[in-house]
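Record type: monomer structure entry
Structure origin: computed from sequence
Chain ID: A
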Amino acid sequence: MLIITASITLQHIYFEPLIMPLAPPVKTEYPSYASAKKDILEHAQGEGYGVSEKRSKKDKKTGEIRKVWIHCDKSRKLKAVGAIRKTSTRKTDCPFKLTITRTPLQDWTVKVIHGAHNHEASGITAVHPCHRKRTNLEKAAIKLLTASNTETKHIWLNIREHNPDLAVLAQDIQNEKAALRREALNGDTLIVALGKMLEKDED
């Protein structure tokens, strides 16, 4: 009996990309970049996807930003062909992208370059870093509560109580607290900082 064996590598397999109807933003004109970005983020959160700034272009004369490319936060290209990726990986090489451009009248316009996504909507908003960013008021609250030695869990509960829709994670609070500690040390090690405090007390 003749046995024929064949091997098929992933390099030779082509998968038709999945196109998902996650709606792109509808509004196209804004008075500022900040208002455009805020609206895009809120729209993306409602549709179940996230976005991130891919790159920007500055005005050669003024040095001010005049154009920003916004991509889906799953847009990073897949790893080398042949590597088997875990299904839990966030990046899918999503083609969704748009631009925000400053006009000669100093307002901003949004143009969708590719409105389709190749992934399903996210069931959990917190998987998208862009939806977990804290406002200046929330950062101030974290700083104040950290100074009072409040536990991370209670800081998280306090912030969520004032903003139930916030997708911030306890780990985000922990990272914020770590940044505050580094800021307080001002580049010194903990031992050096304690030494300086003791010197001040002696004075």
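Annotation 1: Residues 1-16, 81-88 have pLDDT under 50 and may be disordered.
Annotation 2: Residues 52 and 73 are 6 Å apart (CA to CA).
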